[in-house]
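DM from R.C. (forwarded with permission)

"hey, sorry to bug you on a friday — could you get me a structure for this? deadline for the figure draft is monday and I only need the backbone to look sensible"
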Amino acid sequence: MGQYELCIGICMKLLINATSITSNMHTGIERFALHMSQELYRIDANTKVVSTQTIPGIPYSKSPCSIAISNRFFGKREYILRAIWDQTFFRRHLSKAMFDLVFFPIQDGLLFPSVNQIITVHDLHYQHFDSSISDCRNEISRFRTKLYKYKMPHILEHSVAVVAVSESTKQDIVVSFGINPDKIHVIYNGYDEFRFHAIENTQPTLDRYVLQSGNYFLFVGSILKHKNIVRLVQAFARLETEAILVLAGACKDADYLEDIKKAAADLGILETRLRYLEYVSDDDLPFLYNGAISFVLPSLHEGFGVPIIEAMACGTPVITSNCSAMPEIAGDAALLVDPTSVESIAAAMQEILDHPQRAEVLRSAGLERAKQFRWSSSAQKLYEVFKMVSES
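My reply, with the result:
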């Protein structure tokens, strides 16, 4: 548990709500919360954070203003319970402890904040895919999605500023909610440069996953419908190769995972050629990127796409979609495909296989592109937003 305070200019009391960091299985949003908290602490050692996890590099404080909360409090229904906790106990604490500003690095916030709040919007895919509600056969997930769609317009309206992780996401916010674009500040994700980099000897780690370096295409991300994995499987089936397809990521939709397996079976893809590894730890993930022929992210929508820059930083050629934030993040350092076209995805994968020189160009371009995304510079930009709000 970490709790820490940020003084800006005239000693504004700011609290960061990082309760989304609920485990060591970090998604892109949790990485944003973790690294932003760490970098803001480096900028100002008075930063105050509320979290269910110890945050490396931020010492625990027993300040009377500290909020102690156990991850066990949230349990399996963590989103719903955390939403209730935020709107009641957390809101009351903000005014009681006399905070001036609260920052949510997660895509959430207070409906009726007792102090000024700044929230982060990572992704609005649910605005583009209304079917996600009816397709969701889990009652808790269905309720969560409906609650989220209800809350966001109110939360955005009652925020003094909004952080968007890409220009694409900023435009999504403006179009979907009619928010003044001047209120929205684009601050990119970064990547852990000490972890994600080129590695020469990957095989000892890959052996634990029964993988051979240079013999697999890699997808990294949660198992969700908008990730478009069924089409990726269909594209893979068209390739002239002995390589295999590896999927790495937490299963957020068990029904969609079954759809993926059924698609593979219908296409005659043996289980030995389609490997689902579930969530892969941050320690092992760089080795998987480094050993891949190519990283493929054919999502129908992404607010940013953190695995794109992680793969690039590891020197892995990237194939990704030509829509939403993906072209913005990938720049000219990736092969862009039409995610609705199996043929387009397959053609890009085959191009990587058939043209090693093209893969090498992408590898070099990706390494340079990744250098543009640093947590330290992103945190400094965020700090400037805090100062602007404090002075207004």
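R.C.: lifesaver. The chain has two domains: 14-190+374-391, 203-370.
me: no worries. The chain is about 45% helix and 10% strand.
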